[in-house]
Design goal:
This protein is of the alpha/beta class and 446 residues long. It contains 15 helices and 19 strands. β11 and β12 (240-243) form a beta hairpin.
Length: 446
Protein backbone atom coordinates (compact mmCIF):
# COMPACT_ATOMS: atom_id res chain seq x y z
CA UNK A 1 0.00 0.00 0.00
CA UNK A 2 1.23 3.48 -0.88
CA UNK A 3 2.29 5.51 2.16
CA UNK A 4 -0.65 7.86 2.71
CA UNK A 5 0.46 10.08 5.60
CA UNK A 6 2.53 12.50 3.53
CA UNK A 7 -0.12 12.84 0.82
CA UNK A 8 -2.81 13.48 3.41
CA UNK A 9 -0.83 16.20 5.16
CA UNK A 10 -0.17 17.96 1.85
CA UNK A 11 -3.83 18.63 1.07
CA UNK A 12 -4.59 22.25 0.19
CA UNK A 13 -7.85 24.16 -0.44
CA UNK A 14 -9.31 23.57 -3.90
CA UNK A 15 -12.32 24.41 -6.04
CA UNK A 16 -14.58 21.79 -7.60
CA UNK A 17 -17.45 21.83 -10.06
CA UNK A 18 -20.17 19.23 -9.48
CA UNK A 19 -22.20 18.74 -12.65
CA UNK A 20 -25.11 16.35 -12.63
CA UNK A 21 -28.49 15.20 -11.34
CA UNK A 22 -29.47 16.76 -8.02
CA UNK A 23 -32.22 15.14 -5.99
CA UNK A 24 -33.71 15.05 -2.51
CA UNK A 25 -33.15 12.01 -0.30
CA UNK A 26 -35.79 11.67 2.40
CA UNK A 27 -35.51 9.28 5.34
CA UNK A 28 -38.72 8.33 7.15
CA UNK A 29 -37.74 6.48 10.29
CA UNK A 30 -39.95 4.66 12.75
CA UNK A 31 -40.79 1.43 14.52
CA UNK A 32 -42.78 -1.62 13.43
CA UNK A 33 -45.03 -2.93 16.19
CA UNK A 34 -47.85 -4.58 14.28
CA UNK A 35 -49.09 -5.91 10.95
CA UNK A 36 -51.75 -3.96 9.07
CA UNK A 37 -55.30 -5.43 9.22
CA UNK A 38 -55.78 -4.20 5.62
CA UNK A 39 -52.97 -6.30 4.10
CA UNK A 40 -50.11 -8.52 5.33
CA UNK A 41 -47.66 -5.60 5.53
CA UNK A 42 -45.95 -3.95 8.52
CA UNK A 43 -47.24 -0.68 9.93
CA UNK A 44 -44.51 1.89 10.61
CA UNK A 45 -45.07 4.32 13.45
CA UNK A 46 -43.01 7.30 12.25
CA UNK A 47 -40.68 8.88 14.82
CA UNK A 48 -38.52 11.04 12.55
CA UNK A 49 -38.38 12.41 9.03
CA UNK A 50 -35.40 14.20 7.52
CA UNK A 51 -34.15 15.17 4.09
CA UNK A 52 -30.65 15.45 2.64
CA UNK A 53 -29.25 16.26 -0.79
CA UNK A 54 -28.89 13.13 -2.90
CA UNK A 55 -27.25 12.23 -6.18
CA UNK A 56 -24.95 15.04 -7.30
CA UNK A 57 -26.03 16.91 -4.16
CA UNK A 58 -24.45 14.25 -1.97
CA UNK A 59 -21.23 14.55 -3.99
CA UNK A 60 -21.29 18.33 -3.52
CA UNK A 61 -21.71 18.07 0.26
CA UNK A 62 -19.02 15.38 0.48
CA UNK A 63 -16.61 17.71 -1.31
CA UNK A 64 -17.62 20.58 0.96
CA UNK A 65 -16.99 18.39 4.02
CA UNK A 66 -13.50 17.73 2.63
CA UNK A 67 -12.77 21.46 2.55
CA UNK A 68 -13.51 22.27 -1.10
CA UNK A 69 -15.18 25.36 -2.51
CA UNK A 70 -17.98 23.75 -4.49
CA UNK A 71 -19.96 25.00 -7.49
CA UNK A 72 -23.21 23.06 -7.98
CA UNK A 73 -24.51 22.90 -11.56
CA UNK A 74 -27.75 21.08 -12.35
CA UNK A 75 -31.49 21.62 -12.29
CA UNK A 76 -34.32 21.59 -9.78
CA UNK A 77 -38.06 22.01 -10.12
CA UNK A 78 -40.12 25.04 -9.17
CA UNK A 79 -41.58 23.13 -6.22
CA UNK A 80 -41.24 22.76 -2.44
CA UNK A 81 -38.74 19.93 -2.82
CA UNK A 82 -36.59 22.01 -5.14
CA UNK A 83 -36.52 24.92 -2.73
CA UNK A 84 -35.69 22.60 0.16
CA UNK A 85 -32.88 21.04 -1.86
CA UNK A 86 -31.44 24.44 -2.73
CA UNK A 87 -31.57 25.44 0.94
CA UNK A 88 -29.77 22.26 1.98
CA UNK A 89 -27.05 23.05 -0.58
CA UNK A 90 -26.52 26.64 0.60
CA UNK A 91 -22.97 25.82 1.77
CA UNK A 92 -22.10 25.39 -1.91
CA UNK A 93 -22.39 27.93 -4.72
CA UNK A 94 -25.85 27.29 -6.23
CA UNK A 95 -25.74 30.14 -8.75
CA UNK A 96 -25.77 27.61 -11.59
CA UNK A 97 -28.45 25.35 -10.11
CA UNK A 98 -31.19 26.30 -12.56
CA UNK A 99 -34.92 26.08 -11.89
CA UNK A 100 -36.94 24.48 -14.69
CA UNK A 101 -40.64 25.48 -14.44
CA UNK A 102 -42.30 22.18 -15.42
CA UNK A 103 -39.68 19.86 -13.96
CA UNK A 104 -40.37 17.77 -10.83
CA UNK A 105 -37.49 17.64 -8.36
CA UNK A 106 -36.62 13.94 -7.88
CA UNK A 107 -37.31 12.62 -4.38
CA UNK A 108 -36.27 9.24 -3.01
CA UNK A 109 -38.10 8.44 0.22
CA UNK A 110 -36.58 5.59 2.23
CA UNK A 111 -38.76 3.97 4.91
CA UNK A 112 -36.57 2.66 7.72
CA UNK A 113 -37.48 0.67 10.82
CA UNK A 114 -35.02 -0.64 13.41
CA UNK A 115 -32.06 0.48 11.25
CA UNK A 116 -33.37 -1.59 8.34
CA UNK A 117 -34.59 -0.08 5.07
CA UNK A 118 -37.96 -1.65 4.26
CA UNK A 119 -38.84 0.07 1.00
CA UNK A 120 -37.90 3.07 -1.14
CA UNK A 121 -40.53 5.26 -2.80
CA UNK A 122 -39.35 7.37 -5.76
CA UNK A 123 -41.12 10.52 -6.97
CA UNK A 124 -39.64 11.51 -10.33
CA UNK A 125 -40.31 12.10 -13.99
CA UNK A 126 -37.37 11.69 -16.35
CA UNK A 127 -37.51 14.52 -18.88
CA UNK A 128 -35.10 15.82 -21.48
CA UNK A 129 -33.42 19.17 -20.87
CA UNK A 130 -34.93 21.96 -23.01
CA UNK A 131 -32.64 23.35 -25.73
CA UNK A 132 -32.51 26.85 -24.24
CA UNK A 133 -31.40 25.52 -20.84
CA UNK A 134 -28.81 23.26 -22.47
CA UNK A 135 -27.37 26.31 -24.27
CA UNK A 136 -27.30 28.22 -20.97
CA UNK A 137 -25.43 25.39 -19.23
CA UNK A 138 -22.89 25.19 -22.07
CA UNK A 139 -22.12 28.90 -21.78
CA UNK A 140 -21.82 28.63 -17.99
CA UNK A 141 -19.36 25.75 -18.36
CA UNK A 142 -17.10 27.91 -20.51
CA UNK A 143 -16.73 30.51 -17.75
CA UNK A 144 -16.78 28.21 -14.72
CA UNK A 145 -14.44 25.34 -15.61
CA UNK A 146 -11.30 27.54 -15.82
CA UNK A 147 -11.94 28.55 -12.18
CA UNK A 148 -11.80 25.04 -10.70
CA UNK A 149 -9.17 22.34 -10.12
CA UNK A 150 -11.43 19.33 -10.74
CA UNK A 151 -14.77 18.50 -12.37
CA UNK A 152 -17.08 15.83 -10.96
CA UNK A 153 -19.81 14.54 -13.29
CA UNK A 154 -22.53 12.70 -11.39
CA UNK A 155 -24.97 11.07 -13.82
CA UNK A 156 -28.12 9.49 -12.41
CA UNK A 157 -29.92 9.30 -15.76
CA UNK A 158 -32.54 11.96 -15.01
CA UNK A 159 -32.16 13.73 -18.35
CA UNK A 160 -30.07 16.74 -17.35
CA UNK A 161 -26.69 15.48 -18.58
CA UNK A 162 -27.11 15.51 -22.34
CA UNK A 163 -24.36 14.12 -24.57
CA UNK A 164 -23.50 17.68 -25.58
CA UNK A 165 -23.13 18.88 -21.98
CA UNK A 166 -20.98 15.89 -21.04
CA UNK A 167 -18.66 16.14 -24.06
CA UNK A 168 -18.32 19.91 -23.67
CA UNK A 169 -17.41 19.64 -19.98
CA UNK A 170 -14.81 16.92 -20.64
CA UNK A 171 -13.30 18.75 -23.63
CA UNK A 172 -13.09 22.10 -21.83
CA UNK A 173 -11.52 20.53 -18.75
CA UNK A 174 -9.06 18.41 -20.75
CA UNK A 175 -7.91 21.42 -22.77
CA UNK A 176 -6.88 23.10 -19.51
CA UNK A 177 -5.42 20.00 -17.81
CA UNK A 178 -8.26 19.87 -15.31
CA UNK A 179 -9.17 16.29 -14.30
CA UNK A 180 -12.71 15.02 -14.84
CA UNK A 181 -14.12 12.23 -12.67
CA UNK A 182 -17.31 10.63 -13.98
CA UNK A 183 -19.86 8.54 -12.11
CA UNK A 184 -21.71 7.10 -15.14
CA UNK A 185 -25.20 5.79 -15.79
CA UNK A 186 -26.85 3.74 -18.48
CA UNK A 187 -25.66 1.15 -20.96
CA UNK A 188 -23.63 3.44 -23.25
CA UNK A 189 -20.43 4.82 -21.72
CA UNK A 190 -19.06 6.17 -25.01
CA UNK A 191 -20.55 9.59 -24.18
CA UNK A 192 -17.95 9.87 -21.38
CA UNK A 193 -15.00 9.30 -23.74
CA UNK A 194 -11.92 11.29 -22.74
CA UNK A 195 -12.65 11.48 -19.01
CA UNK A 196 -9.72 11.26 -16.60
CA UNK A 197 -11.46 8.69 -14.39
CA UNK A 198 -14.55 6.65 -15.19
CA UNK A 199 -16.08 5.31 -11.95
CA UNK A 200 -18.96 2.86 -12.46
CA UNK A 201 -20.11 0.30 -9.94
CA UNK A 202 -19.87 -3.41 -10.65
CA UNK A 203 -23.36 -3.85 -12.09
CA UNK A 204 -23.07 -0.76 -14.30
CA UNK A 205 -19.72 -1.99 -15.63
CA UNK A 206 -21.11 -5.34 -16.80
CA UNK A 207 -24.16 -3.66 -18.35
CA UNK A 208 -22.10 -1.11 -20.28
CA UNK A 209 -19.62 -3.77 -21.45
CA UNK A 210 -22.54 -6.04 -22.44
CA UNK A 211 -20.89 -8.94 -20.62
CA UNK A 212 -22.68 -11.81 -18.82
CA UNK A 213 -22.52 -11.76 -14.99
CA UNK A 214 -20.11 -14.70 -14.93
CA UNK A 215 -17.56 -12.99 -17.20
CA UNK A 216 -14.19 -12.12 -15.62
CA UNK A 217 -13.87 -8.51 -14.54
CA UNK A 218 -10.73 -8.23 -16.69
CA UNK A 219 -12.87 -8.92 -19.78
CA UNK A 220 -15.20 -6.06 -18.79
CA UNK A 221 -12.23 -3.76 -18.23
CA UNK A 222 -10.74 -4.42 -21.68
CA UNK A 223 -13.96 -3.15 -23.23
CA UNK A 224 -14.28 -0.04 -21.05
CA UNK A 225 -10.68 1.14 -20.53
CA UNK A 226 -10.34 2.78 -24.00
CA UNK A 227 -12.95 5.34 -22.90
CA UNK A 228 -10.94 6.96 -20.09
CA UNK A 229 -7.42 7.31 -18.74
CA UNK A 230 -8.35 5.26 -15.68
CA UNK A 231 -11.23 2.88 -14.98
CA UNK A 232 -12.21 2.61 -11.32
CA UNK A 233 -14.91 0.06 -10.48
CA UNK A 234 -16.52 0.26 -7.04
CA UNK A 235 -17.71 -3.07 -5.64
CA UNK A 236 -19.52 -1.96 -2.44
CA UNK A 237 -18.21 -3.86 0.59
CA UNK A 238 -15.82 -5.82 -1.69
CA UNK A 239 -13.72 -2.70 -2.31
CA UNK A 240 -12.37 -1.04 -5.46
CA UNK A 241 -10.68 -2.30 -8.63
CA UNK A 242 -8.57 0.06 -10.76
CA UNK A 243 -7.60 -0.58 -14.38
CA UNK A 244 -5.19 1.55 -16.40
CA UNK A 245 -5.24 1.99 -20.18
CA UNK A 246 -3.65 -1.45 -20.57
CA UNK A 247 -6.38 -3.03 -18.39
CA UNK A 248 -3.80 -3.85 -15.70
CA UNK A 249 -5.70 -4.54 -12.47
CA UNK A 250 -5.08 -3.13 -8.99
CA UNK A 251 -7.45 -4.16 -6.14
CA UNK A 252 -8.21 -2.33 -2.91
CA UNK A 253 -10.22 -4.23 -0.26
CA UNK A 254 -12.51 -2.02 1.80
CA UNK A 255 -11.72 -1.65 5.50
CA UNK A 256 -14.89 -1.13 7.51
CA UNK A 257 -15.82 -2.16 11.02
CA UNK A 258 -19.47 -2.92 10.24
CA UNK A 259 -21.46 -2.70 7.01
CA UNK A 260 -24.77 -0.93 7.72
CA UNK A 261 -25.70 0.78 4.47
CA UNK A 262 -23.87 1.15 1.14
CA UNK A 263 -26.13 4.08 0.10
CA UNK A 264 -23.98 6.98 -1.08
CA UNK A 265 -20.67 5.14 -0.73
CA UNK A 266 -19.99 5.66 -4.44
CA UNK A 267 -20.55 9.41 -4.02
CA UNK A 268 -18.08 9.42 -1.14
CA UNK A 269 -15.45 7.70 -3.30
CA UNK A 270 -16.12 10.17 -6.14
CA UNK A 271 -15.58 13.15 -3.81
CA UNK A 272 -12.38 11.69 -2.36
CA UNK A 273 -10.98 10.93 -5.82
CA UNK A 274 -11.67 14.55 -6.78
CA UNK A 275 -9.86 15.77 -3.66
CA UNK A 276 -6.86 13.60 -4.45
CA UNK A 277 -6.57 14.54 -8.13
CA UNK A 278 -7.06 18.25 -7.36
CA UNK A 279 -4.09 17.98 -4.99
CA UNK A 280 -1.83 16.21 -7.47
CA UNK A 281 -2.19 12.62 -6.20
CA UNK A 282 -2.06 9.74 -8.63
CA UNK A 283 -5.11 7.53 -9.05
CA UNK A 284 -3.79 4.79 -6.73
CA UNK A 285 -3.18 7.20 -3.86
CA UNK A 286 -6.53 8.92 -4.41
CA UNK A 287 -8.35 5.59 -4.62
CA UNK A 288 -6.80 4.35 -1.38
CA UNK A 289 -8.08 7.44 0.42
CA UNK A 290 -11.44 7.01 -1.32
CA UNK A 291 -11.56 3.43 -0.12
CA UNK A 292 -10.92 4.53 3.46
CA UNK A 293 -13.69 7.13 3.17
CA UNK A 294 -16.09 4.54 1.71
CA UNK A 295 -15.27 2.19 4.58
CA UNK A 296 -16.40 4.88 7.02
CA UNK A 297 -19.47 5.73 4.93
CA UNK A 298 -20.90 2.19 4.85
CA UNK A 299 -20.71 2.00 8.64
CA UNK A 300 -23.53 4.58 8.75
CA UNK A 301 -27.15 4.62 7.73
CA UNK A 302 -27.99 6.69 4.66
CA UNK A 303 -25.81 9.14 2.75
CA UNK A 304 -22.97 10.38 4.95
CA UNK A 305 -20.47 13.21 4.49
CA UNK A 306 -16.98 12.14 5.54
CA UNK A 307 -14.56 14.78 6.82
CA UNK A 308 -10.76 14.99 6.71
CA UNK A 309 -10.84 14.65 10.48
CA UNK A 310 -12.49 11.23 10.17
CA UNK A 311 -10.07 10.19 7.42
CA UNK A 312 -7.17 11.19 9.67
CA UNK A 313 -8.57 9.20 12.58
CA UNK A 314 -8.87 6.07 10.43
CA UNK A 315 -5.38 6.60 8.96
CA UNK A 316 -3.94 6.86 12.46
CA UNK A 317 -5.08 3.31 13.14
CA UNK A 318 -2.53 2.07 10.59
CA UNK A 319 -0.06 4.93 10.14
CA UNK A 320 1.24 6.99 13.07
CA UNK A 321 3.18 9.33 10.72
CA UNK A 322 -0.14 11.03 9.99
CA UNK A 323 0.18 12.77 13.37
CA UNK A 324 3.17 14.94 12.41
CA UNK A 325 2.52 18.37 10.87
CA UNK A 326 4.88 21.18 9.89
CA UNK A 327 4.42 24.58 8.21
CA UNK A 328 3.50 23.00 4.86
CA UNK A 329 0.59 21.02 6.27
CA UNK A 330 -1.41 23.51 8.36
CA UNK A 331 -4.48 23.41 6.10
CA UNK A 332 -4.92 19.68 6.62
CA UNK A 333 -4.49 20.09 10.38
CA UNK A 334 -7.11 22.85 10.47
CA UNK A 335 -9.54 20.54 8.67
CA UNK A 336 -8.79 17.71 11.09
CA UNK A 337 -9.56 19.92 14.10
CA UNK A 338 -12.77 21.49 12.81
CA UNK A 339 -15.43 21.38 15.53
CA UNK A 340 -13.06 19.94 18.14
CA UNK A 341 -11.43 21.22 21.32
CA UNK A 342 -7.76 20.57 21.86
CA UNK A 343 -5.16 20.93 24.59
CA UNK A 344 -1.65 22.02 23.69
CA UNK A 345 1.45 20.73 25.44
CA UNK A 346 4.72 22.60 24.73
CA UNK A 347 8.00 20.73 25.04
CA UNK A 348 11.32 22.57 25.30
CA UNK A 349 14.29 22.08 23.02
CA UNK A 350 16.26 19.00 24.05
CA UNK A 351 13.32 17.36 25.78
CA UNK A 352 13.51 13.59 25.64
CA UNK A 353 11.19 10.84 26.76
CA UNK A 354 11.13 10.71 30.54
CA UNK A 355 8.91 9.44 33.30
CA UNK A 356 7.64 12.99 33.92
CA UNK A 357 6.74 13.48 30.24
CA UNK A 358 5.01 10.13 30.01
CA UNK A 359 2.99 10.87 33.17
CA UNK A 360 2.08 14.31 31.77
CA UNK A 361 0.86 12.88 28.49
CA UNK A 362 -1.26 10.28 30.29
CA UNK A 363 -2.68 12.98 32.55
CA UNK A 364 -3.62 15.36 29.72
CA UNK A 365 -5.02 12.81 27.29
CA UNK A 366 -8.78 12.82 26.96
CA UNK A 367 -9.90 10.21 24.41
CA UNK A 368 -13.56 11.20 24.56
CA UNK A 369 -13.72 14.99 24.54
CA UNK A 370 -10.48 16.69 23.59
CA UNK A 371 -7.50 16.26 21.26
CA UNK A 372 -3.97 16.45 22.64
CA UNK A 373 -1.43 18.28 20.47
CA UNK A 374 2.28 18.33 21.22
CA UNK A 375 4.41 21.28 20.09
CA UNK A 376 8.12 20.50 20.01
CA UNK A 377 10.00 23.81 20.30
CA UNK A 378 13.08 22.62 18.48
CA UNK A 379 14.12 23.59 14.95
CA UNK A 380 15.91 20.25 14.56
CA UNK A 381 14.09 17.70 16.74
CA UNK A 382 15.42 14.20 17.23
CA UNK A 383 13.74 11.81 14.79
CA UNK A 384 13.65 8.94 17.26
CA UNK A 385 11.95 11.17 19.84
CA UNK A 386 9.30 12.27 17.30
CA UNK A 387 8.72 8.67 16.22
CA UNK A 388 8.29 7.66 19.85
CA UNK A 389 5.76 10.44 20.45
CA UNK A 390 3.90 9.40 17.28
CA UNK A 391 3.59 5.85 18.55
CA UNK A 392 1.69 6.92 21.69
CA UNK A 393 -2.06 6.60 21.22
CA UNK A 394 -2.67 9.33 23.81
CA UNK A 395 -1.17 11.92 21.43
CA UNK A 396 -3.37 13.01 18.53
CA UNK A 397 -1.08 15.41 16.63
CA UNK A 398 2.47 16.77 16.73
CA UNK A 399 3.55 20.23 15.50
CA UNK A 400 7.19 20.83 14.60
CA UNK A 401 7.44 24.46 13.43
CA UNK A 402 6.70 27.79 15.12
CA UNK A 403 4.82 29.15 12.10
CA UNK A 404 2.57 26.09 12.12
CA UNK A 405 1.75 26.70 15.76
CA UNK A 406 1.01 30.37 15.14
CA UNK A 407 -1.28 29.58 12.20
CA UNK A 408 -3.12 26.96 14.22
CA UNK A 409 -3.64 29.18 17.27
CA UNK A 410 -4.80 32.06 15.06
CA UNK A 411 -7.37 29.82 13.35
CA UNK A 412 -8.47 27.59 16.24
CA UNK A 413 -7.50 28.68 19.73
CA UNK A 414 -6.49 25.87 22.12
CA UNK A 415 -8.84 25.10 24.99
CA UNK A 416 -5.94 24.67 27.42
CA UNK A 417 -2.18 25.29 27.13
CA UNK A 418 0.50 23.53 29.15
CA UNK A 419 4.28 23.80 29.25
CA UNK A 420 6.49 21.04 30.58
CA UNK A 421 9.37 23.05 32.01
CA UNK A 422 12.20 21.25 33.79
CA UNK A 423 9.95 18.23 34.41
CA UNK A 424 7.28 20.50 35.96
CA UNK A 425 3.87 21.03 34.31
CA UNK A 426 2.75 24.67 34.05
CA UNK A 427 -0.66 25.77 32.73
CA UNK A 428 -0.66 29.00 30.70
CA UNK A 429 -3.61 31.38 30.58
CA UNK A 430 -3.58 32.54 26.97
CA UNK A 431 -2.27 31.42 23.61
CA UNK A 432 -0.92 34.94 23.06
CA UNK A 433 1.46 34.56 26.02
CA UNK A 434 2.81 31.36 24.54
CA UNK A 435 3.17 32.75 21.03
CA UNK A 436 4.84 35.96 22.21
CA UNK A 437 7.33 33.92 24.17
CA UNK A 438 8.13 31.68 21.23
CA UNK A 439 8.29 34.38 18.56
CA UNK A 440 10.36 36.74 20.68
CA UNK A 441 12.63 33.91 21.79
CA UNK A 442 12.55 35.37 25.29
CA UNK A 443 12.06 32.22 27.31
CA UNK A 444 13.07 28.59 27.54
CA UNK A 445 10.69 27.69 24.73
CA UNK A 446 13.40 28.26 22.12
Amino acid sequence: MVKLAKTFRNFQPFKALVLGDFMLDTYTTGKVKRISPEAPVPVIEVTKKESRPGGAGNVALNLKALGATVFSMGRIGNDLEGRELQKLLQETDTTHLITEPNYITPVKNRLIADSQQLIRIDFETITALPQNLEDEIIENLKTLIPKVQVVAISDYGKGFLTDRIISTAIELATSQNIPTVVDPKGSDFTKYRGATVLKPNLSESYTAAKCPPNAPLEQVAKILTPLAKQLLITRSEAGISIFDSNATRFDLPVHSKQVKDVTGAGDTVLAMICLGLANGLNIHQAAQLGNIAAGISIERLGCAQITLSEIAARLLEVDSDTKVFDENHTYALHQVLQGKNYSLLVLDKGQGMSTALFRTIRKLSDPKNEELIIYVADSDPDDEFINLLSSLHEIDHIILQTESLKNLCDAISPHKIFHLKEERLIELNQAKVLLDSILNKSSHFC
